Amino acid sequence: MAGAPPRSPRGLAEAADLAGEIEAPHYHGHRDRLRARFARGEALPDYEFLELILFRSIPRRDVKPLAKALLRRFGSFAEVLGAAPERLAEVEGIGPAVVADLKIVEAAGQRLARGAVAERTLLSSWSAVIEYCRAAMAFAPREEFRLLFLDKRNRLIADEVQGRGTVDHTPVYTREVLRRALELSATALILVHNHPSGDPAPSQADIKLTREIVAAAAPLGIVVHDHIIVGRDGHASLRGLKLI
Questions:
Q1: What family does the entry list (predicted)?
Q2: What confidence tier does 15 reach under pLDDT thresholds 50, 70, 90?
Q3: Are β-strands 234-237 and 156-164 bridged in parallel, bridged antiparallel, or unpaired?
Q4: How far apart are CA 217 and CA 230, in angstroms?
Q5: Is residue 10 part of a domain?
Q6: pLDDT in tens, 204-233
Q7: Which residues pair with 226 in a beta bridge?
């Protein structure tokens, strides 16, 4: 019995194209469409924004389920970026490359926010200061105590994390705060710390510490402009609350 007639080169090419269309993963078109929506400036939900990041780390897999799993685990886009690397790695499908890309995006966001305050008089750009503090600390899993050291024109000299603690406490020593201020020839300070619980309301310990630093700084000619507490639910200013 005679075999089927051989296909022409054109027929073979058409068959290969058809097979490719049938076998091409559905997410390929989705990636192009999502990138196009982003390029047009469309507002994207958190899981789609996460997908855009994951595309780079995971080039050959549908990443929508992984993006949604991250949000279920941590709550929001910002909380995913702020999560500790070891906690991110607990999510199935998250490897070192994904963790690295997420932390790079987090660091980039912090640098952008810091750039808005670095060369400006901080007291005249208070909203930028708050945005920077929230970007840097609001979603950190443990308490951090940060110091913004200012010169006599209220420009930023240095931005340093003085200490990291547990989920609800960071040891802070007044003498170390002032020693560092004198080393930098700072004439003013802004104190900042985060509440991982999300609620930025100051505790009695927060108020007591702030007042101790204010009292000790005054004889040295150092002004404490404010103590800002940040959390997922917003921020609190002890100066604004008339607690200092």
A1: Belongs to the UPF0758 family.
A2: very low
A3: unpaired
A4: 23
A5: no
A6: 999 999 999 999 999 999 999 999 999 988
A7: 190
- Domain span including residue 78: 23-109
Distance between start and end Cα atoms, the chain: 99
Residue 124 token pair: 């005249």
The answer to whether 113 touches 136, Cβ cutoff 8 Å, is yes
Residue after which a domain boundary falls, among 45, 76, 109: 109
Residues 104 and 126 in one domain: no
pLDDT at 123: 66
Residue where a domain stops, chosen among 87, 109, 131: 109
Cα(172)–Cα(204) distance, integer angstroms: 15
**Residue 244 belongs to some domain of the structure:** no
Question: What digits encode the pLDDT tens for the residues 28-86?
Answer: 688 889 999 999 988 899 999 999 999 988 988 899 999 999 999 988 888 898 888 99
User: How many independent structural domains does the chain possess?
Assistant: 2
Q: What value does the mean pLDDT take over residues 91-114?
A: 88
Q: Give yes or no for a contact between 105 and 81, defined as CB atoms under 8 angstroms apart.
A: yes
pTM (two decimals): 0.64
